[in-house]
Amino acid sequence: MSRLKYALIGHGRRGSAHLSTAAALKDTFEIVAVCDAHQESAEAGAARVGVKAYTDVRKLVDEMSPDVCDVVVPAPLHHIVSCYLSRCGISHNVETGLAPTLGLMDMMIADAAENRVKLQTSENFPFVPVEQFVCKLIQDGIIGKVHKCYRLFSTTGYHGLAAIRCRMNAAPTTVSSIGHSMPVVPYVDRAKRDFNREGLEFYAVDFDNGGLGIAMVGNKNGCLGRNKLVGFETCGERGTIITNGNQGASGGETVNVCTDEDISQNAGRAQTYDFQREYGEDKVLQRIFVELPESLGGTVEWLNPYRHTQISEGGISLATMLDGIGRAVRKDTQPLWTGEMGRADQEMVIAARRSVQSNRQPIQLPLEPDPEEEAAFDQNFEEQFGIHPREDIEKALQVNFKAR
Prior knowledge:
Elements: E1 4-9, H1 13-24, E2 29-35, H2 39-49, E3 52-54, H3 57-64, E4 68-71, H4 78-87, E5 91-94, H5 102-114, E6 119-121, H6 129-139, E7 146-152, H7 157-168, E8 172-188, E9 194-207, E10 212-218, E11 231-236, E12 239-243, E13 254-257, H8 260-265, E14 271-274, E15 276-279, E16 285-291, E17 299-303, H9 316-331, H10 339-357, E18 363-364, H11 371-385, H12 393-396
Parallel strand pairs: 1-2, 1-4, 2-3, 4-5, 5-6, 7-10
Antiparallel strand pairs: 7-11, 8-9, 8-18, 9-10, 11-12, 12-13, 13-14, 15-16, 16-17
């Protein structure tokens, strides 16, 4: 098959990064269009790559017949664009979170399955280079069987929970959560997000292998003088892997692990081995590796599959996701992060919210959609945009979100 015809739907801050990455994947995609509800934004994106700009998804589909669409619109609109594309027979990648409610996600998954298209959740955190290397260390048994993992960070929970699921290599069974909210002076952060309150949530997630995942999240994004709580520890039977909790950060990662001699002669005190990076002459990441004693495996490495491109370390995870949907379409295989997997990530977040509402009681997984949650979303959407979000998908496509 020749290169896949790719169209971006949503050329905002995040969509711009998707477009640049797709343009770098020259063997995978031929970019044919950029669509955005705002004419100026659509034209700016289209001009960058020399293609036609659209403000109407329906017109884009009719005129360009893309093989793959990349949906990077505001989350309340995800299901509308996704379901429309599925009904048109077009496979697509959808930014995280997959959708705000379980019912909407089920709608997206069902439409994709019914129309035999590929639906991928663009959950890129587990595909950050250091995360891929961490999972390789775990899979190679370097720190022994993993039983506990915790992450302290500052923003939305599903990214960290997705990474914890990968590290635990198990399915979540129960979520318990503590929540707190306080008023703050209204402000707009660097990502152009409005805040007038500051939330804090503490998740405890039980897994079906007996393991425990802990995640603490809030909107402490460096504003208002808050300390940036970041950290990610994965605890195995003979050692610990320590990394930064932020998927955009790199450096300072270690694996702290005991040799047999450390166990028998050093009271179980582990030695620290630093992650190392090797770069090419063009400053492109070539590999991440760690030098361990031979008894622990010697040199363990992760090779960058994009080392022959100009894609930066920070762009590798997104490149992996976009390549993933391309490969799924070409080879008729499952995407890297399916709609069901995206639902599972959001399910833990929703379970945490339900736990807070039920006075911190454990919430069993999997969850079923709650009619009240679904109705509340529909009502808020209709009040804000003047149209029902599910009854007429094509009509709902006309919703125009306010630009910054």
